[in-house]
Design a protein that fits this description.
The protein has about 140 residues and is mostly helical. It is built from five helices and two strands. A two-stranded antiparallel sheet has the order 1-2.
């Protein structure tokens, strides 16, 4: 294999992971907005359906190539307390490492990078939702 072939292959690999990360982060943002449970015990998706407006809640589009990362992310995330002082905190590398060691799941460096990107998107999205709930509570809604 010549140098140009290796470079093209590397560029395709990088592009694949960047595209996959972007798709998973978009799915996490939508999931945060529409499928996390609020203080009233319901999701935005459920409230939109209750008001007869299900079209306001998009379907969550998880890229097929990232389904395993979606599952890993939610399994790790749901196993730890993420909310501290009214804000969502990141999943620590120690928590990811412990999960990998306990399950025997192999996570490549590129996949771990995507999981971190997903976590940043989750934190951003959830903190927006928390702030919206806090603002509504202050207004008496």
């Amino acid at each position: 294999m010549d140098t140009r072939s290796i470079e093209r292959s590397a560029r395709r690999s990088i592009q694949f992971f960047l595209t996959l990360s972007a798709g998973l982060c978009a799915a996490i943002e939508d999931w945060c907005r529409y499928d996390t449970i609020g203080p009233d015990g319901t999701t935005r998706r459920e409230r939109n359906e209750d008001f007869g407006r299900p079209e306001l809640s998009p379907e969550i589009d998880v890229p097929e190539d990232g389904a395993h990362l979606w599952a890993i992310y939610h399994e790790v995330s749901s196993s730890i307390n993420r909310i501290h002082d009214g804000r969502c905190s990141p999943i620590s590398p120690v928590d990811f490492t412990a999960w990998v060691n306990l399950t025997g799941t192999i996570v490549s460096a590129d996949e771990y990078g995507i999981l971190q990107d997903m976590d940043r998107a989750y934190i951003k999205g959830l903190n927006i939702e928390i702030a919206a709930y806090e603002a509504a509570a202050q207004q008496g809604h």
